[in-house]
Amino acid sequence: MQHHPARACGIDFGTSNSTVGYRRPGAASLLALEDGKPTLPSVVFFNAEDDSVSFGRAGLNDYLEGCEGRLMRSLKSLLGSSLIDGRTEVHGRALYFRDLLRDFIATLKQRAELAAGRPFEQAVFGRPVFFVDDDTGADQLAEDTLAAIAREVGFKEIEFQYEPIAAAFDYETRITGEEVVLIADIGGGTSDFSLVRLSPERAGRSERRDDVLANGGIHIGGTDFDKQLSLAAVMPLLGYRSRLKSGRDMPSATYFNLATWHTINFVYARQVAADLRQLRSEAAEPAMIDRLLALIDQRAGHWLAHQVEAAKIALSDGERAELSFDRFAPGQTHGLLRTDFETATAPLVGRIDHTVHQLLRQAGLAADAVDTVFFTGGSSGIPALRRRVAGCLPQARQVEGDLFGSIGAGLAVDAARRFG
Q1: Taking the C-alpha atoms of 253, 145, 20 and 99 in order, what is their torsion angle to the nearest 10 degrees?
Q2: Which residues does 107 contact at the CB level (< 8 Å), separation at least 6?
Q3: Which residue, 419, 401, 397, is CA-closest to 409?
Q4: Distance, CA of 85 to CA of 79 (rounded, Å)
């Protein structure tokens, strides 16, 4: 039990949602960041109508309600990519992506301090096992970039913890005996796994290195499931994989940009629309290109991506979802089946399955040596994915944590342990 307020907070800067954890007696670990809720969607909206900037749900709602402006989402995906040192145009002004991340992290800090009633100068930041797969230099650069941004907004002491280890610390606060646990943290941008030995007695130790049996991860998360569903079932309605009269395929770059959250804004460049109008005259099915041009004219790319994400969530709970194109094609809808979703994302599930088996080999553990699979992260609720991960460890019991809060709560535990 925490007998005095901690000095430091734990920050889970997520691809889709962010949280801040802070340990203090008699209070919940997660701080309220927006409308009394502990999650702040990792969203920034630049409102062109009143030249304002809004974050989180407020920004997303402004965009979805039709306010003219520019939406930026999946900000964490910029870390480790070449885009981090690039810039984009917002209302005629150049905006550096690095500054965009700094503004969001600053907002996260300010809201956490307001909720806690005190400033924070120390923090433990969560990080995926790999920001970037198979590139240790780029991976370290991503962490260094996030650390530099954290210092710029006022944090003086910064530590990092793997996100699945943080979730393990949260789970450890509620168990009564020793367990070997697979932490399956499947978030918006990455799938991270840790095999950890946990117990109430071990929780009091300052050094836990020997309790971590293996770490692994892959740069696949909820936004990748959105992308594959979009490319398989939605983009073909806008001309993806259609033919030109010459027999050649319609160029695909615009569709891939539309299906990827952090590149949607690229399709609004003037040259893109000009090129598509030229291609329309060559298209075997020009009505599809008309629909695509209408989407671009209405700047409805993020709106459509939100519809695809909502369909993914609906298909995780049920067998069918209805997709609306009202924003750019009034009255047009398209039905999606769970089988469509599972077929489109089967390769992703297979790669995640392979990662779990690699982790067991790395730890030198047989599947039956694992007592529990602890699921966290919003995308861990995808049925096919959960079945596949659980199937790797058929004798382990399945436990679901707070899908959006376990990491932040665990980082708060780690922050109190490290900084007092």
Answers
A1: -70
A2: 40, 55
A3: 401
A4: 10
List the Cα angle 111/53/11 in 5-degree steps.
Answer: 30
Q: Give the residue carrying structure tokens 């596949």.
A: 388
CA 322 – CA 314 distance, rounded (Å): 9
> Side chain identity at 401, as an amino acid letter?
G
The amino acid occupying position 292 is L
Q: Where are the domains of the chain?
A: 9-176+402-419, 223-336
Instruction: List, for residues 317-361, the tens digit of each pLDDT value.
Output: 999 999 999 999 999 999 999 999 999 999 999 999 999 999 999
Structure tokens at 247: 């027999």
Residue 45 near residue 57, CB atoms below 8 Å: no
Burial class of residue 188 (count of CB atoms within 10 Å of its CB; 0-12, 13-18, 19+): buried
Q: What is the pLDDT of residue 327?
A: 92
The fold of 9-176+402-419 is: Nucleotidyltransferase; domain 5 (3.30.420)
* CA-based nearest residue to 312, from 164, 163, 188: 188
416: tokens are 């109190």
- Extract the tokens encoding 392: 């790797």
Beta bridge partner(s), residue 211: none
Contacts of 164 (CB under 8 A, 6+ apart): 129, 183, 184, 185, 192, 193, 194, 215, 217, 376
Rounded (10°) angle between helices 97-116 and 136-152: 50
Which portions of the chain are predicted below pLDDT 50?
none
pLDDT at 201: 93
Are the CB atoms for 13 and 105 separated by under 8 Å?
yes
What pLDDT, on the 0 to 100 scale, is given for residue 2? 56
